Every structure is written in structure tokens, then in C-alpha cells.
């Protein structure tokens, strides 16, 4: 009970600080995933077109994924120094694999009969991509973005060790305090809520964009 009371007291006295770090934490996570999507989605389409490249590209991104987060931050810190930019770059690298793999899988799993029908109708390669393949693969790509964002929110927490700020700062303050359980929870709870909300929201978008959902809406209009 004392911990809950201390937690409520901490939030009441530091609400502005908590919201600032929450917002900073979310922005770092979102930027890392956003920049990764700008690279990974076109690259995923490319390796789906040229399957010989897929093994090399996916292996490289798999190797990046195996590097421990603290080690990644330490290496990048030597190049970029302390701060949020280093965390965003690390998140960019970690987010490449789920987005790339899901883009590749989504494009490859598009029904080849539909693609051939599009070609028979005279559609160009770009028209097939933008009007057929990407719309059908969009829910799978969104699933990759969902995984990357939830993962990024967790990794951003350790950005506090290189001066990036975020909710990890609050957790570290708690570990350094004599009786900091409430302070640790004050940072951990918003982090968990952020990850849960991101997962639920992206899951809803994923289901909305799925071909089966669209077909069902067309079959059963409101």
C-alpha cells in the first residue's frame, strides 16, 4: 500500500516531467521505426523481385538483430556521441529485420494468379506493385511495423545510459534511490502502457487492412 501511495504522490508531484519523458520516449521509438520503414519497405519489395538478393540481405539484418542493445549503443556512441540521435539510429537498425522480412513475405505471398491476370490486362510492373501487390501485402507489412514499434519502445528505455532521456531516466532514478520502488514503477508502468497501446493500435490497423476484413465488409455492407 505504501508503494502505491508513493507512486501516486510521485505522479502528482512530477506529472509534467513524466509526460515530457513519455513524449520523448515515444518520439525516439517512432522515429527509429519510421526511418527503418523508409528503407526496409522498398528493400523488401526489391528482394521479393530479385530472390537472389534475399538471402544476403536477410542474413545481414539477422546479424544486426543478434547484437546486444547495450553493445550496439556503445559502438554507435563512438560515432555519434551521446544523445537521442544515437538511440534513433540503433532503433533504425533493429527495426529493419521485422519490417523487411514482413514486406518480403507479404509480396511473395500475393496470389500469382492475380499477378498474372494483371499482366494479361496490360498492367505495368509499377502498376502491379502499387495497385495489386502492396495493397494485398499491406496487413503483413503492418504486422512487421507493429513488431518493430513494440520492440523499439523496450529498447529506448536503455537509451538513458547514453543521455538520451525517456522513461528509462525515471527507472534509473529509482534504482539509485534508497527506497525507489515507486519511482521505478513510475517509469516502468508508462513504458508498458505505451507498448500495449502501440500493439493494440497497430493490431487494429493490421486487421483492418487484411484482405479478408476488406472482403467481409464488401460482402456485408452496413
UniProtKB/TrEMBL annotation:
Keywords assigned by UniProt, alphabetized: Membrane, Transmembrane, Transmembrane helix, Transport
Domain of life, source organism: Bacteria
Domain ABC transmembrane type-1 residues, every copy: 22-202
Keyword Transmembrane: yes
Segments passing through the bilayer: 26-48, 55-80, 86-107, 128-145, 151-172, 184-205
Pfam families: BPD_transp_1
CDD domains, per database record: TM_PBP2
SUPFAM superfamilies per record: MetI-like (SSF161098)
InterPro entries from the UniProt entry: ABC_transp_perm/SBD, MetI-like, MetI-like_sf
Main location as per UniProt: membrane
Keyword NAD: no
Membrane topology, record value: Multi-pass membrane protein
Places the protein is found: Cell membrane; Membrane
UniProt similarity note: Belongs to the binding-protein-dependent transport system permease family.
The protein's name in its UniProt record: ABC transporter permease
Organism encoding this protein: Alkalicoccobacillus gibsonii
Amino acid at each position: 500500500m505504501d508503494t502505491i501511495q508513493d507512486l501516486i504522490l510521485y505522479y502528482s508531484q512530477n506529472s509534467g516531467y513524466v509526460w515530457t519523458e513519455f513524449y520523448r520516449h515515444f518520439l525516439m521509438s517512432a522515429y527509429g521505426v519510421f526511418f527503418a520503414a523508409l528503407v526496409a519497405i522498398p528493400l523488401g519489395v526489391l528482394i521479393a523481385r530479385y530472390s537472389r538478393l534475399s538471402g544476403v540481405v536477410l542474413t545481414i539484418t539477422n546479424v544486426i538483430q543478434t547484437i546486444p542493445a547495450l553493445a550496439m549503443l556503445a559502438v554507435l556512441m563512438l560515432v555519434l556521441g551521446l544523445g537521442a540521435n544515437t538511440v534513433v539510429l540503433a532503433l533504425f537498425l533493429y527495426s529493419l529485420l521485422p519490417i523487411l522480412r514482413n514486406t518480403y513475405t507479404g509480396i511473395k505471398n500475393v496470389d500469382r494468379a492475380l499477378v498474372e491476370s494483371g499482366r494479361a490486362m496490360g498492367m505495368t510492373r509499377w502498376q502491379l506493385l502499387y495497385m495489386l501487390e502492396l495493397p494485398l501485402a499491406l496487413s503483413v507489412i503492418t504486422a512487421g511495423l507493429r513488431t518493430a514499434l513494440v520492440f523499439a519502445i523496450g529498447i529506448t528505455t536503455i537509451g538513458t545510459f547514453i543521455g538520451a532521456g525517456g522513461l528509462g531516466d525515471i527507472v534509473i532514478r529509482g534504482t539509485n534511490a534508497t527506497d525507489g520502488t515507486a519511482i521505478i514503477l513510475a517509469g516502468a508502468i508508462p513504458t508498458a502502457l505505451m507498448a500495449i497501446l502501440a500493439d493494440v493500435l497497430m493490431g487494429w490497423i493490421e486487421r483492418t487492412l487484411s484482405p479478408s476484413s476488406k472482403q467481409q465488409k464488401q460482402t456485408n455492407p452496413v
